[in-house]
Specification:
The chain has eight helices and 17 strands. The protein is α+β, with helices and mostly antiparallel strands and 307 residues long. It has two domains: 7-129, 2-Layer Sandwich (D-amino Acid Aminotransferase, Chain A, domain 1), CATH 3.30.470; 139-293, D-amino Acid Aminotransferase, subunit A, domain 2 (D-amino Acid Aminotransferase, Chain A, domain 2), CATH 3.20.10. The protein is globular, with a radius of gyration of 19 Å. The strands form two sheets. Strands 8, 9, 10, 11, 12, 13, 14, 15 and 16 form a nine-stranded mixed beta sheet that branches. Strands 1, 2, 3, 4, 5, 6, 7 and 17 form an eight-stranded antiparallel beta sheet that branches. The structure holds 4'-deoxy-4'-aminopyridoxal-5'-phosphate (PMP). 4'-deoxy-4'-aminopyridoxal-5'-phosphate is lined by residues 38, 167, 193, 196-198, 217, 219-222, 256-258. 4'-deoxy-4'-aminopyridoxal-5'-phosphate binds at residues 38, 167, 193, 196-198, 217, 219-222, 256-258.
Length: 307
């Protein structure tokens, strides 16, 4: 279990975590009507605490709220206010090392019925320490019988709390079957993503990843890795629909995400991926990704900001 820090942010205040409560009658609790993001804060050189792509995380929060129609959040918040709230929370908790921060926009209106527009919202944030959700030395995954929610049902592009029941179903099924995680397919059988990470495959020197119309979350690490692969590792990246049998033929498969980092996938559905060991591309990216979060990759220093 992850360790949570003692002070949390809720409705413009920093309070002890025991006081960070939502009403049982709120739409957030009744319908899972909240959107969220998680970003890492890492200890950089000269003891500076650095948030990774904070502006992009804030934009995705705004976009997620917009997709599901939580329209009051965008009216009340801007990046400057959000950044200040993050800084205040980090300082109040006397953070000294690497942590994650989860920021959620909740529909706090009570007994509002099944609607979203014009509802009161509140931002909550808490800080925690956590182990990566996938093994850096290689994970074993299964293709899930549960299909990814489609853009026409609950869009994966929006990070909606209630939609994570889909991930929980598939991940628990994978754990029950002795695997570390699952790979979701869409209703046509194309590859989407893992329970909480994006996926890449390498075939004959070319990298492929499902395009943003493949019912995926538009991962901030996915976007970062695409740039690193093209600019720093000089590799072609093709974003397109991927058939699930391509997973079985891949020379390498790996996942990306805030809580997954760069995670080699070494085994899928009883088959080893290539020789069953982490691949060369994933290993190169693992090294770059660690440096990226502390602003130590030349050309990408602007992706971190002090908090
Ligand atoms: N897909 C899903 C379903 C996720 O929950 C996550 C984790 N946020 C990702 C992909 C990876 O996104 P990011 O790189 O922004 O963490």
């Amino acid at each position: 279990m992850a360790k949570m820090y003692g002070k949390v942010y809720l409705k413009d205040c920093i309070v002890p975590s025991s006081e960070g409560m939502l009403s049982i009658a709120s739409s957030a609790v009744l319908y899972g009507l909240s959107v969220y993001t998680v970003f890492p804060v890492s200890l950089g050189s000269s003891n500076k605490l650095l948030a990774f792509r904070l502006g992009d995380h804030f934009s995705r929060l705004i976009d997620s709220a917009k997709i599901i129609g939580l329209d009051t959040f965008e009216k009340e918040w801007n990046y400057g206010l959000f950044e200040k709230a993050v800084k205040d929370l980090v300082s109040e908790n006397s953070v000294k090392g690497d942590v994650y921060i989860r920021a959620t926009v909740h529909a706090t209106a009570q007994i509002a019925g099944t609607r979203s527009r014009g509802l009161d919202t509140a931002l909550s944030m808490f800080i925690y320490d956590a182990e990566p959700i996938l093994k850096p030395a290689g994970s074993r995954v299964k293709i899930s019988a549960w299909r990814r929610t489609s853009d026409m049902a609950i869009p994966s592009r929006a990070k909606v709390n209630g939609a994570y029941v889909n991930s929980v179903l598939a991940k628990q099924d994978a754990l029950d079957s002795g695997y570390d995680d699952c790979i979701f397919l869409d209703s046509l059988g194309h590859v989407c993503e893992l329970s909480a990470a994006n996926i890449f495959i390498v075939r004959k020197g070319v990298i492929y990843t499902p395009d943003t119309s493949s019912d995926i979350l538009e991962g901030i690490n996915r976007r970062s890795v695409i740039e690193l692969l093209k600019n720093n590792l000089n590799m072609d990246v093709v974003e397109r629909a991927i058939d699930f049998t391509e997973l079985y033929l891949a020379d390498e498969v790996f996942a990306t995400g805030t809580s997954a980092n760069i995670a080699p996938i070494v085994h899928i559905d009883g088959r080893d991926v290539a020789d069953g060991k982490p691949g060369k591309v994933a290993k190169q990216l693992q090294r770059l990704h660690i440096d990226l979060r502390i602003g130590a990759v030349k050309g990408y220093e602007g992706w971190v900001s002090e908090v």
